[in-house]
Structure formats: C-alpha cells, structure tokens
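Long-time lurker. I teach an intro course on protein structure, and each term I like to show students one example going from raw sequence to a predicted 3D structure in token notation. This year I'd like something fresh instead of my usual example. Would anyone be willing to generate the tokens for the chain below so I can use it in lecture? Attribution to the forum is fine with me.
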Amino acid sequence: MSVIGIVGEFNPFHLGHYEHFRRSREQAGGPDTPIVCVMSGDFVQRGAPAVFDKHSRAEAAARCGADLVIELPLPWCLASAERFAFGGVSLLESLGFVTHLAFGSECGDLAPLTALALAAADPENLERIKDHMAAWGSSFAAARESVLAEVLGQEARLLESPNNTLAVEYLKALFSLRSDMIPLTTPRTDVGHDSVSDGPKRSASQLRSMMEAGEDIAAYVPAGARSMPRERMDEGRGPVTMASLEEALLSRLRALRPEDFAALPDATEGLENRLYRAVRTEPSVGAVLSAVKTKRYPLSRLRRMVMCAALGVRAEDSAGRPGYARLLASTERGRALLRQVPESFPVITKPAAAKDLPEADRAVFERTADARDLYVLGYDVIEERRGGSDWRTTPAMV
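-- Reply from a regular --
Happy to contribute to a lecture. Here you go:
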C-alpha cells in the first residue's frame, strides 16, 4: 500500500495545504491513499512562534485529510532549511512504512530540482561555495546560487523561490538517507509564499496578518479546520506572535552568558558575540536583529539563533536524526499504521512515556515539551499561561 509522507508547519492549515493533500494522493495512488505528516511544534523554522499551538494545528490537519500527525522535535524545527528537511524526512523514514515523500514547489518539475540537489550535495561544489562566501562576503544562499549557476546555468535561478529551495533540501535528505521513498512534487500555481492576494486562496503569512488584525479567516480554511482559529482566538490562545512574546524573550536572553551564545547553531565568525552584545543593550527583539543583521547573515538565520538561545537549543542537538516520534493527532486508519512502526523506534503517545527514552532523546523531548512554557506566555488570557501544559496533553483522536 502506498503511504504519503509530508513535512510541514500548517501555520495555519489552509486551502493550499488541503489542495496539496488532494494532488499528492492523485500522484501516489488515489483518493484513499493515507497521509502521514511530520509537523513543526510550537515554534517554526523562520524563528518565530506558531500562530496556534501544535496540538490544535495537528488536529486541524487530521480533520482535513491527514491520518497521522507527528511532531518534529524542537531542534529541527528551528534549524536551517537543510537540517529542517533532513529531520522531517528522516523521521518519516524511521516509521518504516512511508512509500512517497510529497512536497510543493514553484516549478513543479522533479528533473531540474533533482539536478540542483545532486549539484548542491557535491563536495567539490560545497568547497567552491565556501570559497565564494569568503571572497565576496555573501550569504550561503547567494554563494550557492552563484556556484550552481556555473554548473547548471539558468536552472540555478530556481533557488530564488523558497519552495523550490526547500524541495532541493528534501531531495538531498532522500539521497543522504539512501531512502526508497519516491519523491512527488506538486506545483504551487495559485498563491505564492508570503504573497498577498485578493482571491479565494491566501498564503499562510497573509492569514497570520489577517488574524493579528482581528479578521476572520474562515473563508480561506477547509471545512474541517474552519472553526479552530476562531475558537482559539475566543479562548485567548492565539494568535501568538513575536510581539506577544517579546518581554519574555528578552528576559530569557539577557540572563544568558557568552558561552550560551557560542553554543548556538550557526554561531560562527564572531556572530555569537555580536548577538550577545545586542541582547544586552537593545530595547526590543527587532532592534537586536537590526543591530546584528548584515548582507552575510539573513534575518531568518538570526531569528532562529535568537529563538534557539531563548529555548536552550544547542548546535549539536540537531546533528543527527530524531530518535523518537511523538504522536499529536491520528485517525483510526492512522492508528492502524502505527502498528507497522519497527519496535526499535519509540512512538510516544503519552508524554510520561518519554522517561523511557535514551538519555539524549529524552533531553530533546523534554526541551521540546518545555518550549510550551515560553509559548503560552503569548496568550491573552492569563489563566491559559499555566506551566507544564504540554506534559498534560495527549493526541487528538479524530
């Protein structure tokens, strides 16, 4: 039986995600093909809190066609695109029954994406990228596009689009793992990443902006997930934003020592020292980022470093692959799929079971669960900010 794996954030779940499910099923075997999602938790890859908590977003996905939603542990959620993709793909691989890996892309064509992935993973090209960065002071993304343009010509321009870039990282992860999962890509032809539209579909970033302004997004969300955003907003449990967490973030950051910043992912070339000084002097998170940002260090990288610092994530935490799967939501068919997971790979359905994980995996689980204690400080209703809530929440059974 074909089983589709999808890595995503669903921040929030919207019509584009629903359409991706439908098109992926068409490619992989038909409308009844099971879908397993690996989803970011309470914090997402751009270095920000998710608009709604992970359990709510996972249940929304399960009500709209996902059979299993499994959490991507925190260190991979806040990692570079390469490590984010590797964490998600390796987690799907560890389940042992996923046959296809589906992802969106602007170009919708596997052939050029595969060529880019192979070229990007070539050790010789990686050395040339490092030389280019050193010579020109450019960011990794700019240096990679420049080097790959010399190898592949105009195809390298595909890396200017964010979903193409992530698609390349998914393919690299498949190569690295020597996975048998079959890649599938569907073109994003309606609403672009971070775009603004007046049409019937809206990007996730536009929906987040609408909610921050108090607008109702029900018309742009599939029926199964339509009530969730308004319910969470009425409960005072979202949308959670960087602004709503700013004081809590600054408080945590200013309590850290220089060695804490030196241990962060992407802490190189003295960037950790600049970040430490900015945290001690600047009046807001935005000012911290502005003080540190240069052409070489994109804002997304700095936001991830700030969030990793606040949540205690270190560079080595995402060095390997996730050692367990935490279930966030499931259908009856999804629960049947879980019986196929190898006995050697732990599946956590109740948080208390994490105590039986090996020490390193237990530490990752605890850090991921404890991140909720910062996240809830962004809620409007004080009563909802109680600590330890992630340890009391079990999967949604849809």
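Some talking points for your students: The two ends are 22 Å apart (CA to CA). The longest strand covers residues 35-40.
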